[in-house]
Design brief:
Elements lengths: L2 H10 L12 H7 L2 H7 L20 E4 L5 E4 L3 E2 L7 E2 L8 E6 L6 E6 L5 E6 L9 E4 L4 E4 L6
Antiparallel strand pairs: 1-2, 1-9, 3-4, 4-8, 5-6, 6-7, 7-8
């Protein structure tokens, strides 16, 4: 996947996920802590360098905090120096949803879980090779799953 693919998905729609998880706002509020809810369901952002996985180096899969869909492999995690966990690519093309984000006077591409619409963070074209992508993800939006989650 390259930056041109990301822009195409943000403009024309993302690949369809294998399944969908739909819950009411009240159900999400019951399942998540107030901070997780603010970030995952209301498109919030945790403060830089404060997230649980910012400095994590354990092997495993990072799954969506809301629906447990595997999203990123720890082998694709890198130190970006930005204060948020950063990954070069998702585990599968259809687990991430891309949308143009024009908030705060900027133009960015928001990334969400394609299965449940959980706000994850943003993707930028300044990552390492080979993808050149940096998926900048809120720790509150993901959880490290050891071997209990399968692709």
């Amino acid at each position: 996947m390259k930056w041109t693919d990301v822009l195409n998905y943000a403009k024309n729609g993302s690949p369809q996920p294998d399944t969908r998880v739909e819950k009411s706002d009240a159900e999400w509020q019951q399942l998540l802590t107030p901070d997780e809810y603010r970030i995952t369901r209301r498109k919030g952002t945790e403060r830089a360098f404060t997230g649980e996985y910012c400095e994590a180096h354990e092997p495993g899969l990072y799954a969506c905090r809301c629906c447990d869909t595997p999203l990123f492999d720890s082998t694709q995690k890198f130190e970006s120096g930005t204060g948020w966990p950063s990954f070069t690519e998702p585990v599968k093309e259809n687990v991430i949803k891309y949308e143009a984000d024009y908030s705060y006077g900027m133009t960015r591409v928001e990334v969400m879980c394609a299965v449940c619409d959980c706000h994850l963070g943003h993707v930028f074209p300044d990552g390492p090779k080979p993808s050149g992508l940096r998926f900048c993800i809120n720790s509150a939006s993901i959880r490290l799953a050891k071997s209990d989650v399968a692709l």
